[in-house]
Amino acid sequence: MPTNKERSPRYNRILLKLSGEALAGDEGFGIDPKVLDAISLEIGQLVGIGVQVGLVVGGGNLFRGAALQSAGLDRVAGDHMGMLATVMNGLALRDALERSNIRTRLMSAIPMSGVVEHYDHRNANRHLKNGEVVIFCAGTGNPFFTTDSAACLRGIEINADVVLKATKVDGVYNDDPEKNPDAVKYDTLTYDEVLDKKLGVMDLTAICLVRDHNMPLRVFDMNKKGALLNLMLGGNEGTLVEAAQ
Ligand SMILES: Nc1ncnc2c1ncn2[C@@H]1O[C@H](COP(=O)(O)OP(=O)(O)O)[C@@H](O)[C@H]1O
Ligand SMILES: O=c1ccn([C@@H]2O[C@H](COP(=O)(O)OP(=O)(O)O)[C@@H](O)[C@H]2O)c(=O)[nH]1
């Protein structure tokens, strides 16, 4: 039996989307250092087998743009705050990865000289080729978008083999599994099925982007230890969304 080191990974380059809540641990809010360390370990395993890793990090553990809209906060101001929340998560994640000796770059869609690098597509590709993990923060840099859309956009831009959405549920179901205990999970779906059935696991903009660029998307459980490595080594996790075969 070949060891993990000897097996070549199924993907050369991935774009992994981590929601803000993924960093929050049991508290559901803020940043849990233990969770950061666990994520670093899993990402280190991918780098160890030669996978090039791009990360998009969300901000929902700190702030969502729509949160104070009902109290009168301007949505654009709220979204700017939400994007800054993703930068804070990115800084925490870079710190944790670097402490685990994983070479990491943090690139922001919003320029923030002296704090993070500004996102540049060619530089990002160069860093990824050099085996560095690249974290993309500040979403798309524009209000009214989500970090899911940013993940699909960056995945397409860096020509990833797959976009992986790590989330709270273990795949896409025929109904929201957190509300309907009888919901049934799909192993595979086409982009059009997700759109036609209005399956709410990702926003429409994100799904349309991956559909238009034929980018495979996999939704899987971020709390399942080893799921990422298993996926890289050919295992089946979560739900795969791709074009009709
Ligand atoms: N058809 C569905 N299949 C799976 N999850 C769904 C579905 N409809 C709604 N959801 C909900 O989508 C959530 C994941 O989306 P989202 O909140 O955007 O995640 P994240 O915060 O991880 O980006 C799940 O927690 C689940 O409750
Ligand atoms: O391109 C983007 C990405 C994110 N956001 C803002 O940043 C917040 C945090 O992102 P998201 O909700 O996608 O984070 P997640 O749910 O993944 O933690 C959003 O609510 C938006 O307010 C934005 O305005 N434009």
Task: Write a brief caption for the model.
By secondary structure, the chain is α/β, with parallel strands linked by helices. 33% of the residues lie in helices and 17% in strands. The protein has a single domain (13-242), classed as 3-Layer(aba) Sandwich (Carbamate kinase).
Write the topology of this structure.
Layout: E1 13-18, H1 33-48, E2 52-57, H2 75-99, E3 104-108, E4 117-118, H3 121-129, E5 133-137, H4 147-157, E6 162-167, E7 188-190, H5 191-196, H6 204-212, E8 217-221, H7 227-232, E9 239-242
Parallel strand pairs: 1-2, 1-6, 2-5, 3-4, 3-5, 6-8, 7-9
Antiparallel strand pairs: 8-9
Helix pairs in contact: 1-2, 4-6
Describe the overall structure:
With 245 residues, this protein is α/β, with parallel strands linked by helices. It has one domain: Carbamate kinase. The protein has 7 helices and 9 strands; from the N terminus they run E-H-E-H-E-E-H-E-H-E-E-H-H-E-H-E. Strands 4-3-5-2-1-6-8-9-7 form a 9-stranded mixed sheet, with helices on both faces. Helix 1 links the parallel strand 1 and strand 2. Helix 1 crosses helix 2 and helix 4 packs parallel to helix 6. The chain is globular. The chain starts with 12 loop residues before the first strand and ends with a strand. The mean pLDDT is 95. Adenosine-5'-diphosphate binds next to loops. It is an enzyme of class 2 (transferase). Catalyzes the reversible phosphorylation of UMP to UDP. This is Uridylate kinase.
